[in-house]
């Protein structure tokens, strides 16, 4: 899997994005076990997280029924059933619960992780074309502020691997949400000679984060394009029917 340096240094959260094929092994009978949060530099925790989370049964994860919208789900009940959570239509999940891994599945859409190290809150966001146009990243930060009192300047965020602006070509009728919700949508969509547009979802989410008040030095971009690197990642645009990448985060006990 790949991780983000900006989150690696945090002792109260584990995270990562699976590489191609790694999450496809989810039929494994291995199950998640408690991780010792006091292990030096979390090296053993990360190894255990990779082995026991990314190869775990699907029932381990708290995922949503992603519908390419801007709904946000708060996971607040420790007794919630992960399988029941998957019937909830939402594209962002936020929690304060420890040892409850939350995540999103993508194959070109932009996965985002947000962490409040002071209040110990984390979120996983699925920001596809529609969700990005509806500014789901910005709305998730605002929801975290309202629900938990998170301060934007305290947040750490990582934008994971997704399709880049040089690879994602769309028709103009796909841009209406960006025209409606971004002051200058032309920064994000460049017209091509064939009349179509190259849409930069990574930049859209970066701008969303900064406008929500996240500091630039607390925002990390993976720099990986799923369409350019199908050796590493799945890409729906490049491959058609394909697998999904899992981007997940889990809060640790004190």
Would you write up a description of this structure?
The protein has a single domain, classed as CNF1/YfiH-like putative cysteine hydrolases, CATH 3.60.140.10. It has eight helices and twelve strands. The chain is α+β, with helices and mostly antiparallel strands. The chain is globular, with a radius of gyration of 17 Å. Mean pLDDT is 87; it is low at 23-43 and 54-59. The strands form three sheets. A six-stranded mixed beta sheet has the order 2-3-6-5-7-11. It has a three-stranded antiparallel beta sheet with strand order 1-12-4, with helices on one face. The protein has a three-stranded antiparallel beta sheet with strand order 8-10-9, with no helix packed on it. Belongs to the purine nucleoside phosphorylase YfiH/LACC1 family. InterPro entries: Cu_polyphenol_OxRdtase, Cu_polyphenol_OxRdtase_sf, Cytotoxic_necrot_fac-like_cat. GO terms for molecular function: copper ion binding; hydrolase activity; S-methyl-5-thioadenosine phosphorylase activity. This is Purine nucleoside phosphorylase.
């Amino acid at each position: 899997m790949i991780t983000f340096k900006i989150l690696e240094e945090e002792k109260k959260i584990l995270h990562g994005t699976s590489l191609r094929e790694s999450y496809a092994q989810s039929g494994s009978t291995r199950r998640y076990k408690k991780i010792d949060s006091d292990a030096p530099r979390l090296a053993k925790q990360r190894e255990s997280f990779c082995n026991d989370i990314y190869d775990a049964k699907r029932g381990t994860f708290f995922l949503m029924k992603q519908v390419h919208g801007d709904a946000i789900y708060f996971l607040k009940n420790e007794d919630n059933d992960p399988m029941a959570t998957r019937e909830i239509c939402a594209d962002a999940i936020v929690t304060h619960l420890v040892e409850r891994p939350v995540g999103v599945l993508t194959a070109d859409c932009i996965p985002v992780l947000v962490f409040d190290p002071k209040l110990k809150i984390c979120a996983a966001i699925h920001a596809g074309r529609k969700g990005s146009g509806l500014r789901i990243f910005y709305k998730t930060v605002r929801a975290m502020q309202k629900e938990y009192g998170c301060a934007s300047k305290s947040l750490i965020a990582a934008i994971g691997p997704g399709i880049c602006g040089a690879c994602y070509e769309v028709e103009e009728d796909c841009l209406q949400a960006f025209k409606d919700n971004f002051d200058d949508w032309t920064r994000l969509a460049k017209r091509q000679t064939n009349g179509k547009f190259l849409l930069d979802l990574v930049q859209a989410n970066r701008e969303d984060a900064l406008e929500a008040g996240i500091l630039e030095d607390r925002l990390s971009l993976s720099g990986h394009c799923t369409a350019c690197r199908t050796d590493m990642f799945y890409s729906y645009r490049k491959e058609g029917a394909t697998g999904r990448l899992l981007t997940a985060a889990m809060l640790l006990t004190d």
